[in-house]
């Protein structure tokens, strides 16, 4: 949480500073409310939440003096309302053997690193984990995943560069069944440059996994890079449609200038947010806490 706060405080001190400037010697009027709404939208919170903050503020203090603290208190409360329902612990149904976790997201958003961190948590909890290098397009992604597998004592399955990712996913599922792994985590490619191909590949992975178990993949996690701002909203739309994303992890909240977009995403998609990434190390994956996050954004 300290690292999250340090990262987000860059956003919030910026935002808090602007809010404070907005509310010096001003009574709350239409213009101030409009300026505040613009600020909140610029901070990526989304129009809906921004309006809720200004409506609540207006209902409480219209025509009266307002302090920056009034605003941040109301902001934190409104953001918490949005985030509370999506802040959920990741619960894996272990009656599936293995429980298949598919990890999707745009390249560079932290899929491989997050898989490594997750594998460490799960094997640390005594589960037998296998990871599959389904991003068959990038040698570095395969190598990185192998390093994470070794580091976390997980089984690793890969294939040669350029091989069919769905074929690998199928093979990984079969091997994980044979080896009685509890969890299979499958990495995937995220080349948005070629959207049609990417979609076809992800759809195929989901389809072949379903042949071995109609419920598989049981969990589909999407990683979002906090530093990408507004783009993340569109990324969720794309991957949710193609791969049936049913949970989110936001990475790079240790160094970001923006975390507000998670509020807009949560208001719109209402997908569970399981973890946040707060660094590159194995332990830098923390449960997502609505109130802490809201406070960190609001300042
Ligand atoms: P992928 O292409 O989606 O598999 O992304 P990677 O896992 O390779 O991550 C891309 C880069 O982001 C790497 O340099 C990671 O070390 C870094 N990274 C991933 N998660 C975090 C995080 O939570 N914080 C920071 N600071 N860096 C991260």
UniProtKB/TrEMBL annotation:
GO terms for biological process: SRP-dependent cotranslational protein targeting to membrane. GO terms for cellular component: cytoplasm; plasma membrane. One of its GO terms (molecular function) is GTP binding. The keyword Lyase does not apply. Its EC number is 3.6.5.4. Its main location: membrane. It is found in: Cell inner membrane; Cell membrane; Cytoplasm. It comes from the Bacteria. It is an enzyme of class 3 (hydrolase). It catalyses: GTP + H2O = GDP + phosphate + H(+). Keywords: Cell membrane, Cytoplasm, GTP-binding, Hydrolase, Membrane, Nucleotide-binding, Receptor. Residues 272-285 form the SRP54-type proteins GTP-binding domain. GTP binds at residues 105-112, 187-191, 251-254. It is a peripheral membrane protein. The keyword Hydrolase applies. Part of the signal recognition particle protein translocation system, which is composed of SRP and FtsY. SRP is a ribonucleoprotein composed of Ffh and a 4.5S RNA molecule. Belongs to the GTP-binding SRP family. FtsY subfamily. Involved in targeting and insertion of nascent membrane proteins into the cytoplasmic membrane. Acts as a receptor for the complex formed by the signal recognition particle (SRP) and the ribosome-nascent chain (RNC). Interaction with SRP-RNC leads to the transfer of the RNC complex to the Sec translocase for insertion into the membrane, the hydrolysis of GTP by both Ffh and FtsY, and the dissociation of the SRP-FtsY complex into the individual components. This is Signal recognition particle receptor FtsY. It comes from Ferirhizobium litorale. The gene is ftsY. The chain holds residues 182 to 480 of 483 of the full protein.
